[in-house]
Automatic annotation (TrEMBL):
It comes from Cinnamomum micranthum f. kanehirae. The keyword Transmembrane applies. It comes from the Eukaryota. Keywords: Membrane, Transmembrane, Transmembrane helix. The chain crosses the membrane at residues 50-70. This is Uncharacterized protein.
Length: 78
């Protein structure tokens, strides 16, 4: 039996590499399915609402701190 030529080895390597990549993709897709992966494009949808909530809470907190400071000066407790 003669040894395969470099062209034959390249063809065998290409086929094996393609099979390996196909198997790897199958394994990864099963892992994603098992882990319950979600569509990551929807992660940015609630961000504007979270930002508005934080801004409103910060504004309210600042207003109440200002009111507390004003009352403290008015009652001469500060």
């Amino acid at each position: 039996m003669s040894s395969p030529s470099s062209t034959e080895l390249s063809a065998i390597w290409a086929i094996d590499k393609r099979r390996f990549l196909d198997i790897e993709e199958i394994i990864l897709s099963r892992r994603r399915k098992d882990m319950g992966c979600v569509d990551s494009s929807k992660f940015s949808e609630p961000l504007p609402w979270i930002g508005l909530y934080i801004a409103a809470a910060s504004l309210l907190c600042s207003l109440l701190m200002g009111l507390d400071t004003f009352n403290s000066f008015r009652r001469r407790k500060l």
